[in-house]
Amino acid sequence: xxxxxxxxxxxxxxxxxxxxxxxxxxxxxxxxxxxxxxxxxxxxxxxxxxxxxxxxxxxxxxxxxxxxxxxxxxxxxxxxxxxxxxxxxxxxxxxxxxxxxxxxxxxxxxxxxxxxxxxxxxxxxxxxxxxxxxxxxxxxxxxxxxxxxxxxxxxxxxxxxxxxxxxxxxxxxxxxxxxxxxxxxxxxxxxxxxxxxxxxxxxxxxxxxxxxxxxxxxxxxxxxxxxxxxxxxxxxxxxxxxxxxxxxxxxxxxxxxxxxxxxxxxxxxxxxxxxxxxxxxxxxxxxxxxxxxxxxxxxxxxxxxxxxxxxxxxxxxxxxxxxxxxxxxxxxxxxxxxxxxxxxxxxxxxxxxxxxxxxxxxxxxxxxxxxxxxxxxxxxxxxxxxxxxxxxxxxxxxxxxxxxxxxxxxxxxxxxxxxxxxxxxxxxxxxxxxxxxxxxxxxxxxxxxxxxxxxxxxxxxxxxxxxxxxxxxxxxxxxxxxxxxxxxxxxxxxxxxxxxxxxxxxxxxxxxxxxxxxxxxxxxxxxxxxxxxxxxxxxxxxxxxxxxxxxxxxxxxx
Length: 558
Ligand SMILES: Cc1cc2nc3c(=O)[nH]c(=O)nc-3n(C[C@H](O)[C@H](O)[C@H](O)COP(=O)(O)OP(=O)(O)OC[C@H]3O[C@@H](n4cnc5c(N)ncnc54)[C@H](O)[C@@H]3O)c2cc1C
Description:
binds flavin-adenine dinucleotide, alpha+beta, disordered C terminus, FAD-bd, FAD, RIFMO-like, FAD binding
C-alpha cells in the first residue's frame, strides 16, 4: 500500500475546508481535500452571508460573481418591530447576501481548484495517527495519506474530532425545526429577512432573488412547540404552511414547497482547536443555532485565519504561530454561540409577560444608534476583532479592509498579493522592504502592517522599521523573504539575503541554514552560495534551492 504525501491534508469539502484548501494552495503548498460524498452535496443549509465574509471572499475575487444572483437584504426584522439594521455597517457590504449555500460552496470549490488544490471525492477518513513530523490517515478504501498538518473541517459530526479525542461539550437547544424553499404569492413586507413568532411557533423567511408573475421564492424556517418529532420524521407541506400563516403577520400564500428538511440544533464548542498537528475548524469545532446565520460565516473565517499560519510555519515560522489559531478563533465562536443562542431563546420565549417586555424593549434598544451599530457589526462580523496584546496600538487586531488607499481597495490588492501588506501613511514614499507588498493610505491614519487575513498586526510610523520588522518576524519567523511572483534570478536572491543578514546584525560565523520551499511538481535547481557571495564575509556556506516557477519563498532558521 503506497502512502501519498502532501503538506496539508484537509478532511471535508464544505465551505471551511474549501476556503482553507484554496488559501493553502495559493501560498504554493501541496494540499489535498478528502471528502466522503462522491458528488457535490446538493443540500443547501446556509443562506445568509455576512459583510465580513463578503470582504474575505472579495480578497479571493469571489464576491462580485456571487452577488450577481443573490438578494441583498438590508436588515433582519426580529420581534415587536425590532430590526437588526445593516445599512450603517462600516463595510462596502451594508447588507446580508441571501443565496443558497450551494452557490458559495461552488465558488469556493472553483477557487480551490484554480489555485491547485487536489479534491478527492468519495474518500472517507477512518483512522488517524500523528507523530513529531506529521499526520497519517487511513481511508475507507484502505489508502493511506501523510501530511505535515491536517485540518478537520468535517462538519458537526466530525470523525477527526473523535479520532483526536476532543470533547464537544454543549446541549440541544431546539428540535424539530423545518427548513424549506417556498414560493409565496404575498411575501412579507420589506426587502429584509423576517422572523415572526407566536408563543408556540416561529417562522423565518429570507428572500431569494427568484420570482415570476405568480410569486417569489423564499428560504423558510419553521418551528412548532406543539409538534416536536425526531429529525427522521418526514416533513409535510401542511405543517410548513400552518406555521407560516400563524407566525407571520400577513400569512404568505404558499404556492409551492420544494426542498424541505427537518433538523435539530445544538450549541457546542470544542475546548481546544489545536491537537498537535491537527486543527479543528468550522462546524467540527463549533455548532450553534442557525438563527443569526453565523455557522458558515464563522467556518470560512476560521479557515482564513488558519491557512496563512500553516503556510508561515511550513516556511520556517515558529510553531507557536499555530497556537494563535485557537487563541484568536475560539473566543470568536464562543461569542457567536452566545449571540445566536440568545436570539433563539428570545424568539421562542413563552411567558406572556416576558414576551411583552421583549417586544417593548427590543425596538427601543435597537433604535439607539450605538446599540444598533454594535449589534449589526457583531452579527456581520465587522466589529469582531482579535486581541492586541499588552501595549499594542488600539488598531492592532482590527480589520484593515476599510482603510482608504490611494489606489484601489485592500481586498483587490490581496487578490494578487495574498501575503503581508505594509500600508504607509499618506504621502510616505515606498520603503525598501525585501519584497513586502506595499500600499499608501489616502487618509490621515498611521502606517499599518496587515496580515494575510486582513487584520492589522502593527500600527505606527512606517519609518520606524524595527516596529513593523519585529511584527513581521513574530509571524513569519526570522529572515523570511517572499519574492512574490517575480522570476527568481540568482542575483536578486543574493541581494535579498545580503540585506537581511545585515538588517539582522548577524555576527560573522553565525550558522544560518537557508530553507527554500520550491513549489511542487517542478524541477529544482540547486545553487551553492559561498559565504563570500552572500555577505562578503566568513559565514558558512549555504545552499539555496529554487526553480523557475513564478513564486519562491526563502527563509532561514537560527
Ligand atoms: C438550517 C440551517 C441553516 C443554516 N443557515 C446558515 C446561514 O444562513 N449562514 C451561515 O453562516 N451558516 C448557516 N448554517 C450553518 C452552515 O450550514 C454550516 O455552519 C456550514 O455548512 C459548516 O461548514 P463546514 O465546512 O464547517 O462543514 P460542512 O458543511 O458540514 O462540511 C463538512 C464536510 O465534511 C465531510 N465529511 C464528514 N466526515 C468526513 C470523513 N470522515 N471523511 C471525509 N469527509 C468527511 C462531509 O461530507 C461534508 O461535506 C445553517 C445550518 C443549518 C442546519
